[in-house]
Amino acid sequence: SFELTQPPSVSVSPGQTASITCSGDKLGDKYVCWYQQKPGQSPVLVIYQDTKRPSGIPERFSGSTSGDTATLTISGTQAMDEADYYCQAWDTSLYVFGTGTTVTVL
Amino acid sequence: EVQLVESGGGLVQPGGSLRLSCAASGFQFSNYGMNWVRQAPGKGLEWVSYISSSDKTIHYADSVKGRFTISRDIAKNSLSLQMNSLRDEDTAVYFCAREGGGSTYYLDFWGQGTPVTVSA
Fold this sequence. Notes:
Number of strands of chain A: 9
Mean pLDDT of chain A: 95
Order of helices and strands of chain B: EEEEEEEEEEE
Low-confidence stretches of chain A: none
Shape of chain A: globular
Order of helices and strands of chain A: EEEEEEEEE
Helix content of chain A: under 10%
Number of strands of chain B: 11
Structural class of chain B: mainly beta
Distance between the termini of chain A: 36 Å
Number of helices of chain A: 0
Mean pLDDT of chain B: 96
Number of helices of chain B: 0
Largest sheet of chain B: 7 strands, mixed
Oligomer: heterodimer
């Protein structure tokens, strides 16, 4: 079955850049999106179709892909960006979520 | 403003049934595919089911296939999930989420979730 793998945790200092990877078999052939989820809240879409940012999402969030790895980058990370982040792709009639990454702003 | 409001969650015994609902507003409900996604306590997101805008296409995760049924009522702008033969591992917060239009395979709006606890 199709799986998406993310690092369990990423730590970043305020103002620095956080990068979260998402890897999966033939992921380069699929669109990837990313969600941010803060404790006790619903997920929020932050990147869709690999690189697009929904209205209202700050420019410091960006997405990219290279081969079978997608990356969410948070530039100039702020304390409010501390959250869980999930990648997601679609594969043969299934939505598949990544394992999730907790971003800690130290 | 797009709003999705889930209801119907609660405590149910193993083997029991529960019906979740999601009231949609602020958009043309009939034009969008809809999904259910769940999150077990302390765990990640797990997609559960999808129904297309036309109702012609329905998909389920293997973990719920044959036990859960997704449906929608266009007249009431409502999405439902009928859950039968519930198991301990179905315990989770259940979110309804809108697909971003036209088979785009991303979920652009989510409800606040409704908790389901399966326990004796």
